[in-house]
UniProtKB/TrEMBL annotation:
Pathway: Pyrimidine metabolism; UMP biosynthesis via de novo pathway; (S)-dihydroorotate from bicarbonate: step 3/3. The lineage of its organism: Eukaryota, Viridiplantae, Streptophyta, Embryophyta, Tracheophyta. It is an enzyme of class 3 (hydrolase). PROSITE patterns: DIHYDROOROTASE_2 (PS00483). InterPro entries: Amidohydro-rel (IPR006680), DHOdimr (IPR004721), Dihydroorotase_CS (IPR002195), Metal_Hydrolase (IPR032466). Belongs to the metallo-dependent hydrolases superfamily. DHOase family. Class II DHOase subfamily. This is Dihydroorotase, mitochondrial. GO terms for biological process: 'de novo' pyrimidine nucleobase biosynthetic process; 'de novo' UMP biosynthetic process.
C-alpha cells in the first residue's frame, strides 16, 4: 500500500490531490479528490496551468495580448452642447459606433424637433470621415403628451424617453413629479410605440439616505411600474447596487435591461475619500459599498444578456468639479473600453466582453449589431492627467494612471 499527497497552490487558488494506490496481483485502486478540476488550475494573471490525466504538466496557453471584437455602442452618454460638445464628441466617436445621447441640456430636449436640432449639432461637431451615429432621446416631463411619442417614433432619430425624477441629478430640475398620474398616458403610448423608458433609478426625498435611494426607487416606483405596464420596455440606467442586479435578473429578458458604467464596476465609495475628497470620482448615482460593486461585476461577467455597456460619461470643466459645490459626473469616454476590458480580464471573462459591449445593447433595442470591428491590444499606456481646451480643462477617469488594454480601430 502506498500513499501520495500532492499539493499545488498558485495565487489564491489551489488544488489538493489525495492519491491512494493499493496494488496487488488482482486489484489496483486509484482515488483522486480535488477541490477544482483535477487537470487544470488557474495560474498567474489569466494564464491557466493544465495537467493531463496522469497529472503531467501540459504546456500553458499563451497570455492573450490582442482581442478583436465587434465595435461597441455606448447606451448612455452625455455629450453636452456648445464648447463642451465640440471638445468631447471625438473621444466617443473614436471608439463607439452608436450612442444613446442623454437629453438633460439647458433647456432640456423635450420635443422631437429639439432632438433633431441637437442631433444636427452633434453631426456638425464630429471629425470628418467619422461614422458615429447619435441615437436621440426625449426628456420626460409632467407636460409631455402622447402625440409627442408618436412624432418621436416617426422621426427615425429618437429611440427612447428618459425619466429623471425631479432633482435627482445634473439638470433634472424639469424632471417628473407625478409618474403614475400626469405621465401615465405617455407611458401607455410608449408601450404602443415600443419606445423604451430609460430610468434614472433614484428617489429624491431628502429624508432618504443617498446610499439607499436606488433600492427605495425599485421598491416604490419601478416594481409598481412594471406591474402596471408589463409590456413597457425599461432600461435601468447606471445601476449601482446588488438590489438593482437582483431586480433586473428577476425580470423577463427583453423587457427590463440595465446599463453599467466603468466607475460602478471598478470603484466603491472609498474612492470618494481616499487621500482627501476626490471630486473627480463623484457621480450620481453615487458610488456604493464594495459588496455592491462585486455583485455588479459578477452580473456583467456572467454572460447575462440583460446587462450592457453604458458609460454615463459626463464631462464637466475642471473648475466646476473642484469647487465648493462640485458637479456630479465622471468623464470616462477616452478610457471606457480600456476599463471594461480591465474588469473582464481580471474576472477571467474576456470571452464574454464582446457580448456585453457589442451585442446585448442592440439586441435589447431591436437594432442590428454593428459589422465593424475594433481591436484591443494589451499594451500599457498612461491616461492623460487632463484634456486642455480653450475654455478650460477636463479631467478623465483614472487620470495619470497606467492601463493595460488599449483600443485601436
Amino acid at each position: 500500500v502506498t500513499f501520495f499527497v500532492f499539493f499545488v497552490s498558485l495565487e489564491v487558488e489551489a488544488i489538493f490531490t489525495y492519491q491512494v494506490k493499493i496494488s496487488c496481483k488482482a486489484l489496483r485502486f486509484d482515488m483522486i479528490k480535488t477541490l477544482v478540476s483535477p487537470c487544470s488550475v488557474y495560474g498567474f494573471g489569466s494564464q491557466k496551468l493544465k495537467f493531463d490525466r496522469s497529472c503531467k504538466r501540459v504546456k500553458p496557453r499563451a497570455v492573450r495580448m490582442e482581442l478583436t471584437i465587434t465595435q461597441p455602442d455606448d447606451w448612455h452618454l452625455h455629450l453636452r452642447d456648445s464648447d463642451l460638445l465640440q471638445a468631447v464628441v471625438s473621444h466617443s466617436a473614436s471608439t463607439f459606433k452608436r450612442a444613446i445621447v442623454m437629453p438633460n441640456l439647458k433647456p432640456p430636449v423635450t420635443t422631437t424637433a429639439a432632438a433633431i436640432t441637437y442631433r444636427e449639432s452633434i453631426m456638425k461637431a464630429l471629425p470628418s470621415g467619422t461614422s458615429f451615429d447619435p441615437l436621440m432621446t426625449l426628456y420626460l416631463t409632467d407636460k409631455t403628451q402622447p402625440d409627442e411619442i408618436k412624432l418621436a417614433r416617426e422621426s427615425g432619430v429618437v429611440y427612447a424617453v428618459k425619466l429623471y425624477p425631479a432633482g435627482a441629478t445634473t439638470n433634472s430640475q424639469d424632471g417628473v413629479t407625478d409618474l403614475f398620474g400626469k405621465c401615465l398616458p405617455v407611458l401607455e403610448e410608449m408601450v404602443k410605440q415600443n419606445m423604451p423608458l430609460l430610468v434614472h433609478g433614484e428617489v429624491t426625498d431628502p429624508s432618504i439616505d443617498v446610499f439607499d435611494r436606488e433600492k427605495i426607487f425599485i421598491d416604490t416606483v419601478l416594481q409598481p411600474l412594471i406591474q402596471r405596464l408589463p409590456q413597457l420596455k425599461v432600461v435601468m440606467e447606471h445601476i449601482t447596487t446588488m438590489d438593482a442586479v437582483n431586480f433586473v435578473e428577476s425580470c423577463k429578458e427583453g423587457s427590463v435591461g440595465a446599463t453599467v458604467t466603468p466607475q460602478h464596476l471598478l470603484l466603491n465609495r472609498n474612492a470618494l475619500f481616499q487621500g482627501g475628497l476626490q471630486p473627480h470620482n463623484y457621480c450620481l448615482p453615487v458610488l456604493k459599498r464594495e459588496i455592491h460593486r462585486e455583485a455588479i461585476v459578477k452580473a456583467v461577467t456572467s454572460g447575462s444578456k440583460k446587462f450592457f455597456l453604458g458609460t454615463d460619461s459626463a464631462p464637466h470643466e475642471r473648475s466646476r468639479k473642484e469647487s465648493s459645490c462640485g458637479c456630479a459626473g465622471i468623464y470616462s469616454a477616452p478610457v471606457a473600453l480600456s476599463l471594461y476590458a480591465k474588469v473582464f480580464d481580471e474576472a477571467g471573462a474576456l470571452d464574454k466582453l464582446e457580448a456585453f459591449t457589442s451585442f446585448n445593447g442592440p439586441d435589447f433595442y431591436g437594432l442590428p449589431r454593428n459589422s465593424s470591428k475594433i481591436t484591443l491590444k494589451k499594451s500599457p499606456w498612461k491616461v492623460p492627467d487632463v484634456f486642455s481646451f480653450s475654455f478650460g480643462e477636463i479631467v478623465p477617469m483614472f487620470a495619470g494612471e497606467t492601463l493595460q488594454w488599449q483600443p485601436s480601430n
